[in-house]
Structure formats: structure tokens, C-alpha cells
Design brief:
Elements: E1 8-9, E2 14-19, E3 22-27, H1 29-35, E4 38-42, E5 49-50, E6 55-61, E7 65-69, E8 74-79, H2 82-85, H3 89-92, E9 101-105, H4 117-124
Antiparallel strand pairs: 1-2, 2-3, 3-9, 4-6, 5-8, 6-7, 8-9
Length: about 120
């Protein structure tokens, strides 16, 4: 299983790459493996605002549908439009081509709930 060490994770199996006041968010390799073949991703709207913990979309796999939870508060500034036609990118490349959203953070200090790769590895093992 792929667990990059240069990004943060949530207990709900999202990953977060922080760059100043912008966060790139997706679902982890572990989560996509548990879901199975992803066939549809419901994406939020650009400029939509979410609070930490809110559901911002869903991922539909062959065997289940799972909510995506916002790890940080902020405004959607970009969605991965490739996922509309190729949702399987989350399966094949969850940390690069399979990213889901980019978020303009309300506060750069709003990341206390994020964990590093070692803690995430403990969580899923």
C-alpha cells in the first residue's frame, strides 16, 4: 500500500497536501482499495464553502457508496474534472491524477485533526 510521507491524512481516509492556504484533497490508497472499482464521483461546485467535517461529495464503487468528508474548512477553488469521465483514476493513482478537490483554507491553523503517515498506518493496520 502506498502511503506518501509528505502529505497528511484523516481518520476518515482522506489525504491532504498543504501548500500555504491551499489544500489538495483526495482519498487514500487504503480507502480506494477498500471501496473497490470506483465508477462515479460526485464533486462539489466551485466557490462552494464547507466546514470541517461536512460531506462534500460521494464516491460510488461497484459494491458501495461512500461520503467524502471535509478535513478542513474552506472554499472550493478547483475540482478534478477528469474524474467525471475517468473516476477510476482514484483507483489507479489516488495521490496524483486521482486528487478530488483544491480548497482555499479559511485558516492555515485549522489542521489539528490531520495525522502523519505513521499514525495513519497504525490506524489502518
Amino acid at each position: 500500500m502506498n502511503l506518501p510521507t509528505d502529505i497528511k491524512y484523516t481518520q476518515e481516509h482522506e489525504w491532504v497536501k498543504l501548500d500555504d492556504k491551499v489544500a489538495i484533497i483526495g482519498i487514500t490508497d487504503y480507502a480506494q482499495g477498500e471501496l473497490g472499482d470506483i465508477v462515479f464521483v460526485e464533486l462539489p461546485l466551485i466557490d462552494e464553502h464547507f466546514d470541517k467535517g461536512e460531506s462534500f461529495g460521494t464516491v460510488e464503487a461497484v459494491k458501495t457508496v461512500s461520503d467524502l468528508y471535509m478535513p478542513l474548512s474552506g472554499k472550493i477553488i478547483e475540482v478534478n474534472e477528469k474524474l467525471e469521465d475517468q473516476p477510476e483514476l482514484i483507483n489507479s493513482d489516488p495521490y496524483n491524477d486521482g486528487w478530488v478537490i483544491k480548497l482555499q483554507l479559511d485558516s492555515a491553523e485549522d489542521n489539528n485533526n490531520l495525522i502523519d503517515s505513521e499514525k495513519y498506518k497504525e490506524l489502518i493496520s
